Amino acid sequence: MGQLESIKAISAGRATGDRFRTDPPSAEAIGEELERLLDSVTFSAARAQKRFLQYTVTETLQGRGHLLKEFALGVEVFGRGQSFDPRTHNIVRVEAGKLRAKLTRYYATEGRDNPVRVALPKGSYAPLFHWNRTLDSPKERAPEPAQAHSVNSAPTRSLSWHHAVGLASAAVALVLLGAVIAFKVRGPTAADRVPSVAVLPFVNLNNDGNDLLSDGITEDLLDSLARVPGVRVVARTSSFGYKGRVLDLGRIGRDLKVRTVLEGTVRQVGSGLRITARLANTADDSQLWSESFERETKDVLTVQREIAASIAAALGVQFARTGTVAYAQSAKPSVDPEAYQAYLKGRYLWNKNAPEPVKTAIRYFEQAIRTSPRFALPYTGLAHAYTALLVMTATPSEELIPKIRSAASKALELDPSLGEAHLDLAETFLAGFDWPNADLEFKRALELSPSDAVAHRYYAFYLEKVGRFSEATSEVRRALDLDPISTFVGQGLGDALYHERRYADAAEQYRSVLELDPSFGFALRSLGRLYIRQGRFNDGIQELLAACKVMEGDPMTSGELAQAYALSGQRAKAIAILQTLLTRSVDGRPAALAISKIYFALGDKGRGFYWLKKSVDEHELTLDLKAEPLYDVIRSDPRFSALLRRMNLT
Questions:
Q1: Closest CA to 364 of 352, 380, 349
Q2: For 435-459, how does the pLDDT look when each residue is reduced to its tens digit (9 = 90+)?
Q3: CA dist., res. 436 & res. 257, Å (int)
Q4: Does residue 323 or residue 619 have the better pLDDT?
């Protein structure tokens, strides 16, 4: 409900004469007033007070106002940690005073005609809510002073829902023009020449515990911005690390090495959708751009494109082009809300990065496609899911590759700007040992989505497979620059250094990943493998035993431990693991690559080559004949050369 409608509804329900409403404002009315406050000019640069206000209002509405004590607020709102002592640190009292002052200023100016008012009484941190009694007064109001137009000003919230929809495009254009002019007047600094942005998870203002829509919008915005050339966009893994945390922008800027942060809120009312977004400078929390978008849920993809175009303009960069059509102007059809919900559920499960959730995600993507066959993103999701199964399971590649290509090709037919679909196609060529076409698809993916950290990481994986090791290391470094706190990418850099035989650098990188997550199994396994190559058998075995506990049942991890036992002279333990792998299958097949490596470590080249050929014939995606140091002692063997030819690597 827009502000005018709220006032009309209140007026319609008000008794005649000078009597005021005695019923309390509804939770919906309070929620709408909170949105107006957070979007206002008064609070535009008051990040700490906005956090304070949003947290206390939400807790009070959920019946926890009595728990709003100084210690809890210091910890939950201002991130002071469990050692916070209100007796020696007065941050909560100081910020409460600032919040009261801003509320007073707001309701004396831009919020004067709002139907609901929020107050923070002295001596309490639980806000109070009441109707605006000045609206009952028959006295004539003095004319409201005209507001100067400002780049940092949010638009007045007195439009009805449908009126706002009609004027949104004009408002966006005016705000963006101001933002671009401001950048030109200020003049580019050295940092401005490398625009960078982190998209923080948008906040769900419905407070219903279901963040599918707000998270999905955030992820789609990330994908859209990743397609803008000349902008460094921090990847999902790193930006979503701040979900639910209260941190200042300066800290985020330092952690992620970004100059700007995009944050926002999402509120769904029936079929209507309100999205607010704000771009801020991490150096001083100054607002560079802000806007609210009010649309129908079916137009959510259009809104995302508008926001991405706005941010690109505010950062002073041009959008990528697909053919001759500017990205910012490319068509985005309406999407059926039911199909979009199914897509969001599939994407949520795919992000779990485990076989069973991915298989469930496939069903949701298929449901979205049945509901809306012209919606491109579920086809991309389907291609992603089948590619994940190609990596995570022993499902035959000949079964999965046609499905990946079909889904990715359909996605590109519907939306040629989807670089991630080219990434899936590249993976199919990678699995099929078609290196030239894999290279073309990876490059096309990076051309369309230059800030896609996953694309850079997997392109590095390809470069390692074809023996271009230094290029691979550089490519992973680009991925890590885009996703600085990703353990997956960090471990990938360690692998690239390991394949360059830079063991000391690789070990340091693996240890830095384990500082972020001591239980990250892949890094434990990689560090253990590296120690074995260095002859540090005891250290290597300890790391591999820790990896096996975390990744119980993973054949590659068990195989690395068996190699360690074999190379350290503990043959009986190695053979015991080998026998287990020979009798156990994954999705109907023994783990041929892991078995071959154990035989080589035991000195049985005949069986080693037999199982290695089997791995090549099965197109195991983790094959690394060019890169793996274990194979250095057999590279001169004619049988090894024959396998390289079989993989088109000569």
A1: 349
A2: 999 999 999 999 998 989 989 999 9
A3: 35
A4: 619
Taking the CB of residue 279, how many other CB atoms lie within 10 A of it? 22
Q: How far apart are CA 585 and CA 597, in angstroms?
A: 17
Please list the residues that pair with 262 across neighbouring strands.
199, 279
Does the structural domain 335-411 have CATH classification 1.25.40? Answer: yes
Q: Tell me the CATH number of domain 161-326, given options 3.40.1440.10, 3.40.50.10070, 3.40.50.720, 3.40.50.2300.
A: 3.40.50.10070
475/548 Cα distance (integer angstroms):
29
Confidence at residue 443, expressed as pLDDT on a 0 to 100 scale:
96
pLDDT > 90: what percent of the chain?
A: 37
Q: What is the model's pLDDT at position 251?
A: 85
The reported pTM is: 0.65
All structural domains of the chain with their residue ranges: 3-136, 161-326, 335-411, 577-650
In what helix (H) or strand (E) does residue 265 lie, and over which residues does it extend?
strand 260-269
The 10s digit of each residue's pLDDT in 248-268 is: 788 888 888 899 998 888 888
Residue 286: CA count within 13 A, CB half-sphere: 9
CB atoms within 10 A of CB 42: 20
Length of the chain: 650
Query: CB atoms < 10 A from the CB of 305, how many?
Result: 19
Looking at residue 143, what is its pLDDT? 38
What six digits make up the tokens of 336? 């059926």
Chain centre to alpha carbon of residue 103: 34
Secondary structure of residue 118 in the 3-state scheme: strand
**What does DSSP say about strands 325-326 and 128-131: parallel, antiparallel, or unpaired?**
unpaired
Identify the pLDDT of residue 174: 32
Within 10 angstroms of residue 19's Cβ, the number of other Cβ atoms is 9
Residue-level pLDDT at 325: 30
In degrees, rounded to 5, the angle at the alpha carbon of residue 493 between the alpha carbons of residues 499 and 348 is: 125
